[in-house]
Amino acid sequence: MKPVWRRLCVPLGGLALILTVGCHGRPTYPKAHLTEAFQTLLAEERLHASVRFVDHTLAVQLEQPDALAQSGGQIGIGPAFDEATRKTLTVIHRVLLSTDAEVRFYVLLMSDPNVPGAYLTVVRYLDDVRRANVQMLDTPEMFARTIFELNFVGANVLTLEQYVPRAIRLEEFLSWQLARRIQHQLTEELQQDGLVNVGRCGGQFDNGEFAFTLDVSPSTAGSLDESTIQRVFRTATNLIAKVLSNYRFEDFESVRLTHPLTGRTLLLPKTRLEVFR
Fold first, then answer.
1. What is the mean pLDDT of residues 168-174?
2. CA proximity to 149, closest of 189, 111, 182
3. How far apart are CA 132 and CA 22, in angstroms?
4. Which CATH architecture is the domain 171-276 placed in?
C-alpha cells in the first residue's frame, strides 16, 4: 500500500498561546511533574495519548479514530484529523511554553485504529514555536519549518521507544527540513513549468556534512540539458544557504548535493557556502 505524500494544512491554533508562568516567576508546569501534566491535560481533552521524554525531546503518541482515511489503496487525512491535531498541539504548546524543562524538539506520532500500519508524524523545533508565538515567524514559514510525514509500515506496530530511540539533534532536523524545502522549491520553479519531474529528495547529516539527493528527471524522453541541471543545483544551494543562515547554524563542515540520474555531485565547503548567503 502506498501512502499519499501531500502538503498537510495543520491548524496552528496552539501557536497563538501566550507564554505564561506561575506566581513569583515559577513555571506553571515544573519539569519534575511534566509527564503528569501532559497526561492530565490530554486526558481532559479525551485524547488517547502516551508521552515519552528522551533528553531534550518530547514524544507524544496519539491514537485517534477517523484521524486518517484509507481509500483505493491510498492513505490520507480523515475527518477527525483537524480537531485532534488542534487539541494535541494546543496542549503541547501550552505546557512547553510554560515550563522550566529544557525541551528542544517535540514529535507527534498519530495513528488511527481503523487504518492499521499508517502513521502521521509532526516534528517541530521549540525555538521555532516560541518565535511564531511572538510573531517573528509567519504561518507559511512555520509550515516550512515543520516536518510532516505520512508513512505506511504494514503490519508493524510502532511504539514511541522504536520511533524516537534518542533525542533529536538540530543538524538532523535541519537536514529533514531542507530536503522537504528543496523538493518543494524545485517543484514550484521547475516542475510547474513542465521542464522536469521532481521526486522525493533525501537529506541527512553525517560527520559534519549535510548530504542531499536531488530526484529530478526530464518530463519527456531524453536527458536534462546542462542549463536545467545547473538551475537545479543553484536552486538547492541558494535555499540551503538561506535556511542555515536564518537558523544561525554553523556547526558543519560541508554540503554535498547529488543528482543520482546523472551522477553529478557538488561539494561545497562551508566557506564557499557563505557566498550564497
1. 97
2. 111
3. 22
4. 2-Layer Sandwich (3.30)
